[in-house]
Design brief:
117 residues; mainly alpha; two-stranded antiparallel ribbon; 3 helices; elongated
């Protein structure tokens, strides 16, 4: 079996973006389903959960290989970008809308329309 090695190619960094999207999106969905009292903050919870996981993994990988800190920072940055995309798109486009209270006291909400073909 050949050994595996990571690099800073587009495919490698795209996998970090995809992983961040997946973790943040799933966390956002779990918060929506099982913790309805936090629905207004579900996207932030999804993003920060992904960020915490990525930071821990970054710390572990940096401790194991101190020669490639710049590569690990690139991986962390790509993961955080993916986490932001995943949390936002899951919150705005895949989950039922939530009534949000604005700082000025007004409220806004979205509408979901479904048409079966």
């Amino acid at each position: 079996m050949s050994s595996l090695s990571a690099n800073n190619s587009f495919a490698s960094e795209a996998s970090h973006v995809g992983g961040g999207m997946l973790i943040a999106g799933m966390t956002t969905g779990i918060v929506d389903r099982y913790f309805p009292q936090y629905r207004e903050e579900r996207a932030w919870i999804g993003f920060w959960t992904n960020a915490a996981i990525a930071a821990v993994l970054f710390g572990i990988e940096t401790a194991q290989d101190r020669d490639d800190v710049s590569g690990e920072l690139l991986d962390l940055g790509c993961n955080l970008v993916g986490g932001a995309i995943g949390a936002y798109t899951t919150d705005r486009f895949f989950l039922a809308p939530v009534v949000h209270k604005a700082p000025d006291g007004s409220h806004d909400f979205g509408i979901k329309a479904i048409h079966r073909f």
